[in-house]
Amino acid sequence: MTREEATDILHQYTKSESLLRHARTVELVMRAYAQQQNQDPELWGNTGLLHDADYEAYPEQHPQVIVNLLKEKGEPEMAHAISGHYSHWGVPHESLLDKALLGCDEITGFVVACAQVRPQRLEGLEAKSVLKKLKQASFAASVDRGEVKLGAELLEVDLAQHIDFIIKTLQPHAQELNLNPVPSGGD
């Protein structure tokens, strides 16, 4: 599947700007990890891009709609990874792709949430700040901290290093992601 095909599928199901941004951020991080791990960046990126594609249109059936579509399109690796990107669904994490998607999804969304509450956004954001926010249960309360921890374990990376990797991956894309620093008033 090409990125263009994956993007078309995403836009068929997803209209929300925040979900589109989440899809793009997870895609970017997955592509970066694929390159680091000598894996297929197209496969990994497209998996990240489409992991929540059906969430907005079919929240009660998520992720089965996108999983079934990917199976029909001959993308079993993507389908399996997406079917297990939340550990409570009970799908085994067999491949590095499976582990990477679970490992990148929640924490990437959390890093973006941390950036959004800072005037400097991604600029100067450090892993220690993100780790501190993770301890605040009320901040980005929908983020499953257990999934964040499990994801780092599955990837066999230190959580702080993982967060740092995500920040560094997203920073060059700050403008596209609408995460540029907020201009200060006056001079």
List the helices and strands and how they pair.
Blueprint: H1 3-13, H2 17-36, H3 41-50, H4 64-72, H5 76-83, H6 96-116, H7 127-134, H8 145-155, H9 159-170
Helix content: 55-70%
- State Rg: 16 Å
Q: Which regions are unreliable across 5 or more consecutive residues at pLDDT < 50?
A: none
Given the structure, what is the number of helices? 9
Number of domains: 1
Order of helices and strands: HHHHHHHHH
On the 0 to 100 scale, the average pLDDT is 96
Domain HD: 20-90
Protein name: HD domain-containing protein
Organism: Rufibacter roseus
Pfam family, one: HD
Give structural notes.
With 187 residues, this protein is mainly alpha-helical. It has one domain (3-173). 59% of the residues lie in helices and 0% in strands. It contains nine helices and no strands. Helix 4 (64-72) packs antiparallel against helix 5, helix 5 packs across helix 6 (96-116) and helix 6 packs across helix 8 (145-155). The longest helix has 21 residues, at 96-116. The model has no long low-confidence stretch (mean pLDDT 96). Residues 20-90 form the HD domain.
Quickly list its features.
globular, mainly alpha, 187 residues
Brief synopsis:
This is HD domain-containing protein. By secondary structure, this protein is mostly helical.
